[in-house]
Structure formats: structure tokens, C-alpha cells
């Protein structure tokens, strides 16, 4: 069962809204329908609270009530939010065409992501010469921050205080495993600071390198390039890393030259550390 969250409530927040968002977050890829009991287990909320809020979410079109399965499914309105993000994002409008051109030029997969709690969510994923595969990354998909090049590049790009808050959440079953993971993350952060990128192969036969994209007035993003069905090596990582860092410089210049997001200097995620 999930640990109960402490909700802000009061003048700085709305407890019902926060709990409703947590219910929507309980639906993950691979999960079709969830009943009130399963939602309560995933969120740590009382079942009576979940029952009340799921009825509200159904009434406002955020959940579909699947009575035959005695559960709920995310409704189409939720999907429309993602479409609005993609179509309305000034960052994607600027970087999307550059990413597509670079993917074709280098014959590599190119992705852009940012953080959602302790996960990284893809905003765009350009797959070079896609073919049927068990591993297909699409916009909106989440990957673990602590295990991936994207996540570790993001951690390297944010301020120390923000990074410390995230690091304490990367716990494993044993203290030794946790220490080993944190040491591995710190090595990746060191690689970003030294070489401009980090390389991680968290899936067999896949090599991914990533670098942070930090521009004043914007959230911190992570940009990656990857290859699959290969044997990851340090030499290959260095080659792709050189392509990536040069491309990332072009992306930063393009974002700085675009005024679309400069009118909201207070908007954004964690502060940049680099």
C-alpha cells in the first residue's frame, strides 16, 4: 500500500483537488481499469474518499465508469490534455523540427523529456527508421529518473537543493543497493559536468546518452540520443556524446532566440545548476 501523502490544503492548496490528481496518476501504462479498492491501495487514500472523488471525476468527464468491470478507466478528456501540451508547447515548436532533422542526419533516436516527480516523461521521441520492436518510446511515456540517461542528465541540470530532495526518494530494498545506486547516479552527474553528457544502458542492447537543456525562464529538460540492437561501448558512447553535445548547443541557441516563452520568466520547474 502506498504511504499516505501530506496534502497542502488551506490557503496554499485544495486537498480535494490534490487527491483527485493523485487518483488520476494511479492509472499507469499497462493498467486498463482500476476499482476503488485498487486506487485506494495505490494512492494511500481512504476508500471512502476514493469512492467520493471517483464519482466526481466521472461526472466531470475525467474517468469512465466501467460498470461491467466494477472499475474506472481514464476518459478521452485526459488524452486531450496531452494533445494540448504537445500542440501548445513553444519548446516543442522550436525543437521538434530540429530533432527530426538531426535524427535523420545521424540515424539515431532523439528524445526530449522533463520530470514528473521521480519519473521522466517524454515530450517528444523521434525514432529513426522505426520497425516492430518490443521497445517503442512515444511522447507521454515515462521512464525511471534514477536509472536512465535522461533522468541523470536532468539531475545534473537542476539546483543542488532540488536534486537532494529527489535523491532521497531513490531507495532500494537494502541500504547497500541504495548506496550503490546513488554512487552510480553521482558518477553520471560527474560525467555530465566533465564531458557534457552521461551514458546509460539500462535496457539490454540499448545505448542512450543524454545532456541537460537549461535555459533561463524555462523548466530544465533533458535531451538524449540512443541506438538499439547494438553492443554498448565507451567508444560508441563518446561518438554519440559528441553528436549530442553539439546538437544540444544548437537547441539552446534556438530556445534563447525564440521569444515565445520569455514572457513567463517565473514559470518553470527546478532551477538550473549549470
UniProtKB/TrEMBL annotation:
SUPFAM superfamilies: GAF domain-like, Winged helix' DNA-binding domain. Residues 77-257 form the IclR-ED domain. SMART domains: HTH_ICLR (SM00346). InterPro entries: GAF-like_dom_sf (IPR029016), HTH_MetabolicPath_Reg (IPR050707), Tscrpt_reg_IclR_C (IPR014757), Tscrpt_reg_IclR_N (IPR005471), WH-like_DNA-bd_sf (IPR036388), WH_DNA-bd_sf (IPR036390). PROSITE patterns: HTH_ICLR, ICLR_ED. It holds the Pfam family IclR_C. Residues 14-76 form the HTH iclR-type domain. The keyword DNA-binding applies. Keywords: DNA-binding, Transcription, Transcription regulation. This is Helix-turn-helix domain-containing protein. It comes from Bradyrhizobium ontarionense. The lineage of its organism: Bacteria, Pseudomonadati, Pseudomonadota, Alphaproteobacteria, Hyphomicrobiales.
